[in-house]
Amino acid sequence: MGCSCQHEQTLLDDKKELLEDVISAYKGKAGSLVAVLQDVQGICGYLPQPVMRWLGKELGIKPAKIYGVATFYTQFRLTPVGKYLIMLCQGTACHVNGAERIETAVSRELKISSGETTDDGVFTLDTVACLGCCSLAPVMMINGRAYGPLTPDGAVKIVKDIYKKETQSGGEVQ
Amino acid sequence: MKLRIGFGSCGIAAGALDIKKSVEEEILRRGLDLDAEITGCVGMCHNEPLLDVLDDSGNVYTYGKVTTDAVKLIFDRQIEGNQPVEEYLVATAERPNDFLSGQVRLALRNCGVINPEKIDDYMDQGGYKALHQAVAEMSAQEIIAQIKESGLRGRGGAGFPTWFKWQAALQNRSDVKYVVCNADEGDPGAFMDRSLLEGDPHSVLEGMAIAGRAIGAAIGIIYVRAEYPLAIKRLEIAIEQARERKLLGKGILDSKFNFDILIKKGAGAFVCGEETALIASLEGERGMPRLKPPFPAQSGYWGRPTNINNVETYANVPWIISQGAGEFNSMGTDKSPGTKVFALAGKIKRGGLVEVPMGIPLRQVIFKLGDGIKNDRRFKAVQMGGPSGGCIPEQLLDTPVDYDSITRTGAIMGSGGMVVMDETTCMVDVARFFLDFTRKESCGKCVQCRIGTKRMLEILERICRGEGREGDIELLQSMAVKVKEGSLCGLGQSAPNPVLTTIRYFRDEYEAHIRDKKCPARQCKALISYHIDPELCRGCGRCARKCPVGCISGEKKKPHAIDPERCIKCGTCLEVCPPKYHAVFVE
Ligand SMILES: Cc1cc2nc3c(=O)[nH]c(=O)nc-3n(C[C@H](O)[C@H](O)[C@H](O)COP(=O)(O)O)c2cc1C
Ligand code: FES
């Protein structure tokens, strides 16, 4: 991870003001660590190590504890996410309705497996336990919007359409 | 005349945003003076997107699977010509469909009826009257007595009597107490709480405020999954509106009663649905359960008496207070009064949310309301209670749905998820699936839970790979007992249930995997292979074109063949082979 340190340090500097707002909103309020991390992830997209260390100093919490909480909850990410976060549901209803085939198809299309991000930073693929749209199984959610019921072809088409829009709109891809 | 568009997460996923847009365009284009409101999910998820037309005499015409073209038709024919559009009509007052008419909607009374973002809609249905009563006319003891008489049991899974917890929290003296709503809904395959929060958030707020009045708490906290952004948004709107009307905050309804509600977002951990873990998570810690007692009613959030109930439990409370405990316990069974909301999903024709009186047979829920199995396949089992529950087989379909009868089958009522499985579902794979889930979600505190679930999972994986051994079933059974006995919280104590019930009812499937190295449902990839029958294949080439790994070859109009070495067993060829040829088969 050494290579990303520089970038992560810059991230901390760039977003300092926003992050300081979070600190002042929660400082002194006991038990807000989960909420702080949620807000910080909202700002940075994930939880970079330098940011966690800085948070520890600001809040007077040991970095080990912050790391412990951050790794306990599946919502927190320690690596950057792509512009589009694809969450493939692996819940019971989706499982019995063929979620695995959706995963295989999308994985093949993007050439990444669950937990990874495409090289161009457009897509991150992730699996979740249930999106609460079980009657539309199998389901996936992309940046907060649910899609279902899916077929392998249908899922690939949705991803391709997003990619097309993304590359046509002037390539805001980082 | 008025229009109503189903705007729950499921409706939106099915395209309700486009429908709303085209409805608004039609109104504008035709210069009509019409209201188009949004509403929560009525439960007919299989028919989303839904559009209701309410005529001037109050009749409701419900249209399902609505497209933008259908919207035009509905405007042309029904709105401007008073002729219903039969092609899309799913229910009317004269022709109610089985799905809705078989239900008794208490907790879901307003879902799909009111606009959840407007407090006036809720109040027009009698909302907040119960809070008024509780604040102005009833003592804490009287409220608890009503809840006791109603017989309401917790809807979050365990079915614990609600009044008992309230009584304990009331009796434990403290200047600060808390009311917590458990909206973590971690059971995969369940979405009752999401729909309720999206469709009728005020009923939950009102229920919490009444609980606050009963136990003497001034602060309520809703712990809601971060995966439910729409539910969170609607709750925020509802809380803001309730504060403006003095239904929350200081001096509620000009009395001395203060009660306000905050939202805390979960961060994705199934175990945080367990109440002591939930409290740890609220306190910003890792969500690890602790030993009880002390119970939350004695020492909960920050060590103060805390009452925790499920979303649906709270939603029932205002109904009980305003309609009376007797009305409530006249429904359902003696030991499980009232109604229960179920989320029907899996291999079912009409998936969605249903609310029925307790005690009706499972068969009625699945075959009458749910209309049976998709593609008219054969029913195999229904999974209830999620990772803590079990699979109920066909021979027990006449079991009444109430806490005690379901527990006797080895499953549990749970929070209300019902995932239906058919002959193509492998029961060993289902057991493996759930154990994989509980193993990942175990917080790691108890050794038996942390390592026991992992070892059990390894055995199940081995069986699914065709490497099962004689004695594996007995080994699983004995490990199950140890995991149950050696775990501190409900997660570990119930993690073996899916394994035990599948062994109990589908032992033959385990044996087929272990002895014959066969998967009767043809799901376990290591035990099946795909073939093309040369007699039946006409060489249309569809399978070859669709095969993701390109392992099917053959000349045009000549029988094709699958290369077993490269085949990934995805099943695409079977799916795309035209039914008139039916040439692909699985062994
Ligand atoms: C592992 C585990 C997960 C749980 N998840 C939930 C949940 O998601 N929602 C819920 O309401 N109760 C859940 N419960 C049950 C709660 O611990 C608690 O019994 C319930 O919230 C009490 O509310 P009730 O009496 O209204 O049912 C869970 C329990 C365990 C052991
Ligand atoms: S199981 Fe996939 S959305 Fe619930």
Give the topology.
The complex is a heterodimer of chains A (174) and B (587).
Chain A: H1 5-14, H2 16-26, H3 33-44, H4 49-59, H5 63-72, E1 84-89, H6 92-96, H7 99-110, E2 123-128, E3 140-142, E4 145-147, H8 152-168
Parallel strand pairs in A: 1-2
Antiparallel strand pairs in A: 1-3, 3-4
Helix pairs in contact in A: 2-3, 7-8
Chain B: E1 2-6, H1 9-13, H2 16-30, E2 35-39, E3 51-54, E4 60-63, H3 68-81, E5 89-91, H4 98-101, H5 119-124, H6 129-136, H7 140-150, H8 162-171, E6 178-183, H9 192-199, H10 201-215, E7 219-224, H11 229-244, E8 260-265, H12 275-282, E9 306-310, H13 311-323, H14 325-329, E10 339-346, E11 352-357, H15 362-369, E12 379-384, E13 390-393, H16 403-408, E14 417-422, H17 427-441, H18 447-464, H19 472-485, H20 490-494, H21 497-514, E15 530-532, H22 542-546, E16 552-553, E17 561-562, H23 572-576, E18 584-586
Parallel strand pairs in B: 1-2, 6-7, 6-9, 7-8, 10-14
Antiparallel strand pairs in B: 1-3, 3-4, 4-5, 10-11, 12-13, 12-14, 15-18, 16-17
Helix pairs in contact in B: 2-3, 6-10, 6-13, 7-8, 7-10, 9-11, 10-13, 17-18, 17-21, 18-19, 19-21
Bound molecules: flavin mononucleotide and FE2/S2 (inorganic) cluster (FES).
FE2/S2 (inorganic) cluster binds at residues 89, 91-94, 130-134, 137, 139 of chain A.
